[in-house]
Amino acid sequence: MLDLFAEEPAWREPLADGAAILWRFAIRDASALLAAIETLSAQAPFRHMVTPGGYSMAVAMTNCGASGWVSSRSGYCYTACDPLTGAPWPKMPPLFLTLAVAAARAAGYENFHPDACLINRYSPGAKLSLHQDKDEYHFDAPIVSVSLGLPAIFQFGGLRRADPLSRHYLDHGDVAVWGGSSRLFYHGIAPLKNGHHPEAGAWRYNLTFRRAAKEE
Ligand code: MD6
Ligand code: FE
Predict the structure, then answer these.
(1) Alpha carbon 172 to its chain's center
(2) What's the whole-model pTM score?
(3) Which of 42, 83, 144, 167 lies most in the core, judged by the most C-beta atoms within 10 Å?
């Protein structure tokens, strides 16, 4: 009843100014996305990157698109080539680009031109500590984040590390979009629970689309 009068459609939940979860937005594409991840990771394998502090990350990562996010002892940056193979990161599949642009638009961001897609893979127990996404050239473009496979708890804070966290359940096909005044908010993923997903097995995958390089 109340939904009839709500300003927000039921599939979109605002998180903060500029940030929203689009429930099940990617569900129709989910199987194709998983198949594409398989193909992409045959070219640019998943690997556990090392943090500047010398720790191996619990989440395995790879990239597609013109810019790929990498972590090493020397810091975080975007590169055109995969340091593991020396080859350019695989091209971003058209399906990825179309989905990311549509999700950004559904959250109020027109003209999103992502050049980077970070692909994260979580096994049960893996977590992503609280962090800010701040390695991009500018912060005016939003971030589009697609969840696939096992569900996870997404922790969402504020501009300061100590700001209180809200917790959100992200399931297969859910998409989070954020930007604007929440673009630099701290966030993380709580340790993944054990489980089995019919299409993804014992994994959670996350695609994070960003505009990393300076726009031409
Ligand atoms: C993940 N996501 O969901 C990790 N960052 O596996 C992120 O770190 C993230 O979901 C910026 C914006 C959205 C995100
Ligand atoms: Fe992040």
Answers:
(1) 13
(2) 0.95
(3) 144
